[in-house]
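User: Can you write out an input/output pair for a complex, sequences first and structure second?

Assistant: Here is one pair. Inputs:
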Amino acid sequence: MTENSFRKKLGNIIFESDSPAGKAFDVILLVAILLSVIVVLLDSVASYHEKLGEFFYILEWAFTIIFTIEYFLRIYTAHKPLKYIFSFYGIIDLLAILPSYLSVFLVGSHYLVVIRILRLLRVFRVLKLARFVGAADTLQTALRNSRAKIIVFLEVVLTIVVIVGSMMYLIEGPENGFNSIPKSIYWAIVTLTTVGYGDMAPNTPLGQILASLLMITGYAIIAVPTGIITTEMSKISSKKQASDKTCTHCRTGMQDADAVYCKKCGKVF
Amino acid sequence: MTENSFRKKLGNIIFESDSPAGKAFDVILLVAILLSVIVVLLDSVASYHEKLGEFFYILEWAFTIIFTIEYFLRIYTAHKPLKYIFSFYGIIDLLAILPSYLSVFLVGSHYLVVIRILRLLRVFRVLKLARFVGAADTLQTALRNSRAKIIVFLEVVLTIVVIVGSMMYLIEGPENGFNSIPKSIYWAIVTLTTVGYGDMAPNTPLGQILASLLMITGYAIIAVPTGIITTEMSKISSKKQASDKTCTHCRTGMQDADAVYCKKCGKVF
Amino acid sequence: MTENSFRKKLGNIIFESDSPAGKAFDVILLVAILLSVIVVLLDSVASYHEKLGEFFYILEWAFTIIFTIEYFLRIYTAHKPLKYIFSFYGIIDLLAILPSYLSVFLVGSHYLVVIRILRLLRVFRVLKLARFVGAADTLQTALRNSRAKIIVFLEVVLTIVVIVGSMMYLIEGPENGFNSIPKSIYWAIVTLTTVGYGDMAPNTPLGQILASLLMITGYAIIAVPTGIITTEMSKISSKKQASDKTCTHCRTGMQDADAVYCKKCGKVF
Amino acid sequence: MTENSFRKKLGNIIFESDSPAGKAFDVILLVAILLSVIVVLLDSVASYHEKLGEFFYILEWAFTIIFTIEYFLRIYTAHKPLKYIFSFYGIIDLLAILPSYLSVFLVGSHYLVVIRILRLLRVFRVLKLARFVGAADTLQTALRNSRAKIIVFLEVVLTIVVIVGSMMYLIEGPENGFNSIPKSIYWAIVTLTTVGYGDMAPNTPLGQILASLLMITGYAIIAVPTGIITTEMSKISSKKQASDKTCTHCRTGMQDADAVYCKKCGKVF
């Protein structure tokens, strides 16, 4: 076997999952990612760290070395190595190993390896679950299409919380826990989003009236992003239904269900 | 009366509710289920347990014995006993009596009999409330159709809470109550879902900024499941309306349910 | 003026609001209702009660006497007195004066006069705000049409909170504030609805995992009532648009926009 | 250059942003607004105020003077000065400088300059981001169209919180923190909107049952504003799609935006 054909074969196993070896590689990888994340989670619990700290330490480095080898193999076998390195998953693969090496110099940074969980997002593509890939695409398209509306919405939310937060700072003041405007804005966000921790809460009647107005506003305007996303999804969904009809001449899909002539080439169906 | 015809008659009373006897049986059963659940609920209140504990104990065993007899009668009278045993309601019927027997060996397990409340889900079928059965079916279909999208959504939510939870652990640390990454992830879930207990809340400015971003994310992405379900329900609803009527002459579909003449060719249906 | 024509004239002023006198009567009535509610609210504040208690007491009785006179005038001038007495607003009008008389015998019950606020619901009808009446009707229709689905939804919610509440009672127990199953069910409702007071919160890892699942469930299934209501509203809204087309022969409205023949009588439009 | 043409040129720079100078002016202005708001926010933090208070004080007055000059330049160069002064942005521009001058007489009022953040709402128009302006218009139209329904909804919410708040005052009473009816109404709003601070929470079983009902109500009726807004947005969205194209030969409307041939008669557009 020449080196070239070996590289091709290896690349197939690593990047694709249609061969038995490729599928096995991907499943093992997913399990390894999951395990390495769980190790970090458990290591952060003081009682486990005391008992199993060294074992976790070894495990973590083992996973890091494995993922490092995998990363360089991906670069070695990729069609266009540079394209892979700067792709979404290429960057995540790098970020997934960096924190461990960083932790040699910077104590605590090794917890950042939980970023490995992002690698799990591949799971649907790996497992060839067409329905889930389709669902993910639909969600992505809906979110992308409603981006402009959602940014406008967020700017309005930001304006509301800055103004109401400042007013609450004047009304309640530091004696009621509203120490500064930024902290009051934080409170306004906690209230508007209906999270409501209760670590800060208005005590004066005027503050409670303003808070009530903010809550009702937050309760009502949550309808806005919902309306935006729902409308986009309905559009995508109805377009998909329409696409059942495809022109037999020019292959243009997504034609209206009641169309008699193709909208692109004008041929009768 | 032969044994066979007796079994058939009994099975009719137990499984169907179109005869007066069958209906009476079902209503009594529903009331008994409700009472047995209420007994467990009250028994768990310390003050009632002290005063009425023994009375509750007797009642609970009475209900358990009744439901056990009923369970074996169901097996005895079912057309295909095995099919019943492994059906959804068959399993629930068994689970509804097991905890009481288990409590002989395992203290406390008798509270699990509240699982009996699942048996109440039969209520609509029993009472022959066609509208409610239809409504339940619509909801079930909508949820089943949106399963793929909702799983993708939940995976994204999981990824967000793991990453944000880990970052909060690094930012806030054990001195602010963020003792471990799993506990920080729990906090991230409490925050993202806008529950906001307030048992843990960020104290550092950086933590509060990150928390604010998480809240706004949670507040905005609740739109996603809503959009998914709404779109599915609209589809089901419009399909129901559309499929009602098609002209037998010109084949134009999607006619109104109350139409007498075709809206396209004017022929009587 | 005969007594009969006087009664008719008075009834017109009281029940209708198309004459200047009728409109003036209704506006004064709405203001009086609002004032009487505000008096009760302020009277409940200890510091105001001390200073102005007697003044509030006199005011409250003044309003009660006025509303009592009004109530008997309504009965006296109504077309069908019995129909008025048992109508929705008739009952509310009675309930709005009863608590004051009841308070003579039962201390504290006079606070129930806040039920008067229900009388304010007339405001849109009184002010002849056709758009608001239409909006209220649309909302009512949407809610009525989705009743079956919402009841099914609530039964599922009830089942979830009973089962999860009981499990939490077993997991957390009285030592963590989960004193009884009913109280744990209360906690489950607080959590599922994303209210999250924080007066009870899980402390054990297992309890926090179960709580996390409950929160995510609550966060996701809020999509269900939203989907139900939105679908109903869309239906009503699109039916309204369709109704622009009305048959010129048989006056049947709500025909499809693209219809060529009337769906009821078969005539060409 | 005559004074008139100078004024015209200046007005172009200030009000429009299609020339390089106009664009530069607008971008600098937006940055200045943002900076001036950040200065106020930081100044309210005690530790920063101690160290940098004087510096912030100078900065704030510098910004105020700049914005005052800008305001008078806007009046000077506007086509119709009065129309500008009483326009939405004209009033905001005035309110953005007033608090600083007011703070000379009224301590604390200078925090109100955060109202300057409202000026940032211009950002999309300034940056000529057509998509965002369109998105903002869609949101505004949807909110305006659903105003009547939302007001009816808010009146129902108000009625619920007043009645439930009063009942809770009677049930829980001052000994459980429900000091007065207005405060109980505040609690009812906190609960209905699912914010749930936890500063007040019911302690009696009856109070907890009533609170549970209120929470489930709040959880379910959030569907109403969502349904309203979503329906409006769908209407706007489908109108936009539909109005895009109508065949000039056969007058069939609602053709796809990207259609080249009519779907009914096959003619080129």
